[in-house]
Amino acid sequence: MFSTMEDGKIVRGLAGIPDEGPVLIVGNHMLMAFDVFPLIAEFLREKKITLHGLSHPELFDIDVEHEYYMIPIIDLLKLGGSIPISGRNLFKLLEKNSHVLLYPGGIREALHRKGEAGKLFWPDKQEFVRMAVRFGATIIPYGSVGEDDILEVRLNTLIL
After folding, report:
1. Closest by alpha carbon to 126, among 102, 109, 149?
2. Predicted local confidence at residue 23, as pLDDT
3. Which of 70, 119, 122, 127 gets the highest tally of CB atoms within 10 A of its CB?
4. DSSP-assigned states of every residue in the chain
């Protein structure tokens, strides 16, 4: 991972990310959102900071009885600092000077179709920017590369 210092110098690691919040990291989801796991792990490892990812609320409604995993997905999400996305939850996190990870394109961006790699699906009204400014949050654009190259997307339609 790389980050940019205030003087514009690009450095390996997260030294360019403020240690104190509020910080809003805004990115585009890559294929299946696999980019989330190493990012959250690196924040814990290098900065000892919980990066609170705002996740689709339906991920928290999965019935544990129907999961076939040793550790239910909901538990992994909570252990990683994830909470359901809502304006209220973003407000509370920024108010508490937290580090927050937001993908405005959401699930549509994570499950993009063939030929849509790197395309943004952000909402027309980006209220999260207004909220971040209200709290004086540092807004950090985030992007990952290569994830879409791991697997060639063959399905041209979403199957939900």
Report:
1. 102
2. 97
3. 122
4. -EEE-TTS-EEESSTTS-SSS-EEEEE---GGGTTHHHHHHHIIIII---EEEEE-GGGGG--GGG--SSS-HHHHHHHTT-EE--HHHHHHHHHTT-EEEE-TTHHHHHTPPTT-TT-----SS-HHHHHHHHTTPEEEEE---SHHHHS-----S---
pTM of structure: 0.80
| Mean pLDDT of the residues in the chain | 82
pLDDT in tens, 8-17: 999 999 999 9
Q: In this predicted model, what pLDDT tens digit does every residue of 36-63 receive, in sequence order?
A: 888 889 999 999 999 998 887 777 777 7
The interaxial angle of helices 87-95 and 127-134, nearest 10 deg, is 20
Residues 41 and 36: their CA atoms lie apart, in Å, by 9
Pair 25, 102: CB distance under 8 Å: yes
Q: Is the N-terminal amide bond of 22 cis, ω within 30° of 0?
A: yes
